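Every protein is a chain of amino acids, and every chain bends into a shape of its own. The protein below has been through that process, and both of its lines are reproduced in full.
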Amino acid sequence: MIDPDRKAIGRRHSIRLPAFDYASAGGYFVTIVAANRACVFGEVGDNTCTLSALGEVVETEWRRTAEIRDGVALDELVVMPNHLHGIVWIKVATDVPTEGTPPRAPTLRAFGKPVSKSLSTILNNFKGRVTTHARELTGTADQTVWQRGFYERIIRNDEELRRTREYIIANPRLWSEDEENPARKP
């Protein structure tokens, strides 16, 4: 069966902008969700999220991303019981191709390899490091921490950046209304 938005059943429809280079300099608001939306990163109480051991690993590895990746800076972050919101800045690369080099599509991989310094590569490496630590914590070799993929939004201007920062900071206070909260009352 063919769906008009997808090539065939089993293939996911990309939410990425088709002509945008996700390795280009700029700010990106990202949300990464725990596998099965399980609340494994902590608990919200008194408008703050108290992190579990795994939640502390998530926060530590997120902050390490800027230390171990050249050209990446981080902004606001909140780790919630079953997801995180953060802002990633990809800085202007010094090894940008010269004029006349065709731009690469955001989801294409060169010869089957990840696109270096792209948002997907940055986040997949982060998720992999957290998963490795989770397996060490639990002693389970097949520990699944994350849902497949992530959600992103390109931050286009200062006002959008301001609103995004406010949203991230307010997230624990708004947990009772959050769509990711399994105990939310509609």
